[in-house]
């Protein structure tokens, strides 16, 4: 072990204070950089309280950062991943949702001619028995790589020949 921060905690010899400061400037993570600056301050000979204060943290946080730095190096200065709540829809249900969006609604069955987030929330409740707020449906669609925007609706009884005649010069007598 290298430099003593206090009577009971030593800092590993891995990097010098200048190396840690250079790494902190380039790491791109503010919290990890603050921990690196605090350790660099301690390596420069400041006591634990002053080194932590200059980096904007408490003494205990600096002690924890030094322990992780000693074990893992600079990788230990980053935050640990936080746990996340499980997805509300299973993978199979998400696949069914994506397939329904790509297929489009059946107006006779679903009661709508285009999918909106509100209509999809109703569809999910009927299909899977899970309630969703329309905003949550939008987030789920984005996570699946889909857009919440909808295409312009097309009437089911649209006549394509009449539209082409209109584009070519209106409805003049033939």
UniProtKB/TrEMBL annotation:
It holds the Pfam family HTH_29. This is Winged helix-turn helix domain-containing protein. Residues 113-168 form the Winged helix-turn helix domain. It comes from Azospirillum humicireducens. InterPro entries: Homeodomain-like_sf, Winged_HTH_dom. The lineage of its organism: Bacteria, Pseudomonadati, Pseudomonadota, Alphaproteobacteria, Rhodospirillales. Residues 147-174 are annotated as: Disordered. Residues 156-167 have a biased composition (Basic and acidic residues). Signal peptide: none annotated.
């Amino acid at each position: 072990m290298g430099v003593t921060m206090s009577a009971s905690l030593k800092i590993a010899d891995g990097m010098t204070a200048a190396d840690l400061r250079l790494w902190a400037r380039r790491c791109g993570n503010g919290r990890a950089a603050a921990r690196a600056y605090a350790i660099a301050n301690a390596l420069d000979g400041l006591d634990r309280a002053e080194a932590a204060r200059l980096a904007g943290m408490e003494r205990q946080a600096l002690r924890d950062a030094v322990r992780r730095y000693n074990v893992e190096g600079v990788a230990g200065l980053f935050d640990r991943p936080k746990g996340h709540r499980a997805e509300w829809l299973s993978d199979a249900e998400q696949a069914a949702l994506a397939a329904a969006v790509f297929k489009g609604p059946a107006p006779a069955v679903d009661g709508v001619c285009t999918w909106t987030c509100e209509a999809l929330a109703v569809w999910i409740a009927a299909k899977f028995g899970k309630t969703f707020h329309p905003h949550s449906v939008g987030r789920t669609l984005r996570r699946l790589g889909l857009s919440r925007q909808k295409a312009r609706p097309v009437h089911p009884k649209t006549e394509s020949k009449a539209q082409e005649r209109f584009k070519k010069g209106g409805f003049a007598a033939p």
